[in-house]
Amino acid sequence: QQEKENLQGKLKLREHLSQTAGKSEATPAPSKNSDLEMKQLQCKLKNSNNEISKQSTTIKSLKNEVQEKEERVRELQAKISRLERDLSMKRHLIEDLRSRLKANQENEKTSNETLESLERKVKAQAEDCLNKKTCIDSLKQRLNVATKEKSHYEQMYHKAKDELEKKELKLNNLESKMIETEYAMTELEATASQQLQGLAKQTGQALETVQRKLLLTNDKVEEFMTFVK
Question: Is 0.90 topped by the overall pTM?
Fold first, then answer.
């Protein structure tokens, strides 16, 4: 732009000189060198204009690129702000997770201690249950033995009861027989008394026979009494 302004200034000066020379008759016509220089300056001015046009296009392009870069920078700054917020949130989250992890570790330590205590209790309970199971098995064996003995004694009881019933029946029969025998003895004694009164005069042999019968009867009665006892 400065070069353009310089060239424009030189052209304006040349034009002014040319106009001044045309008005003044005493001034000679411009020389070929001046015309050539004028053409060179016009050429330079044209080239400068073209270069300025190119530079303007380049500047516009660069401005657009700069705007895009600025937009990209704003986007990146916004993204950085979001990332910083996310990073801050993540730091807070990490701190929270660390505190939770510490609390969980403490809780885990407490839980492990409680678990160890419970395991010891479970082990003690298991040993107690094993001892009780052994005791229960022993009691079951004793119960089986007692059940067998009870069954055996029940059989013996029923057998003894049956035998007792039989003996009671036999005793009743013997008692009835004894009553019959006593009744027969009474009758026999009455008969013997009557016979003694009627046969007082019979011989000693008949008396001995009766006495032998009486002794036999007494022996039978004693046998019955002994049997009954």
Answer: no
